[in-house]
Design a protein that fits this description.
The chain is about 50% helix and about 10% strand. The protein is mainly α. Helix 2 crosses helix 3 and helix 2 packs across helix 5 (about 115-125). It is globular and about 35 Å long.
Length: about 150
């Protein structure tokens, strides 16, 4: 079994997109620290989760208006929450990547079992980000977010 979905980078533009490049090193390190503070993650795991969270958020923003009902699994969602709860930085991210529109967070009480987690993983790979497949496969059948909307 492969441990990564093959990204589809632009053959002209060059290498895969690096989620660390979406924010400053200072903010990245702060959010890694927040993950390590709030969850039982070591440095390596915190970087992995945060990277997938940013890849997810940027991809969801790039597909705004398509009503795809995108959702990360529970593990990646932890990183997404860390980004969203840093509200000033999150607003700046939405300004830069989502034309100033807030990507709302609309959680469900029960996780949906509609394949949306692996669909977004494939969409992230198609957008040129490397997908850390074990983080997505852990919750491959369920996503905790609202279906059929542009929200997270």
């Amino acid at each position: 079994m492969s441990t990564a979905l093959a990204p589809s980078p632009d053959p002209i533009a060059g290498p895969f997109r690096d989620p660390r490049g979406t924010v400053s090193a200072e903010l990245w390190n702060k959010q890694v620290g927040l993950l390590m503070r709030d969850y039982p993650f070591d440095t390596v795991m915190a970087h992995r989760v945060l990277g997938q969270a940013y890849a997810y958020l940027i991809t969801a923003m790039e597909h705004r208006g398509e009503g795809l009902g995108l959702a990360p699994g529970k593990i990646v969602d932890i990183g997404v929450h860390t980004v969203i709860l840093d509200t000033v930085a999150y607003a700046a991210l939405c300004e830069k990547y989502n034309a100033g529109h807030l990507l709302h967070h609309v959680p469900l009480v029960e996780a949906k079992n509609d394949g949306s987690v692996m669909r977004i993983a494939r969409l992230i790979a198609a957008g040129g980000f490397d997908v850390d497949l074990p983080l997505w496969e852990a919750d491959a059948t369920c996503g905790p977010c609202h279906p059929g909307s542009d929200s997270h």
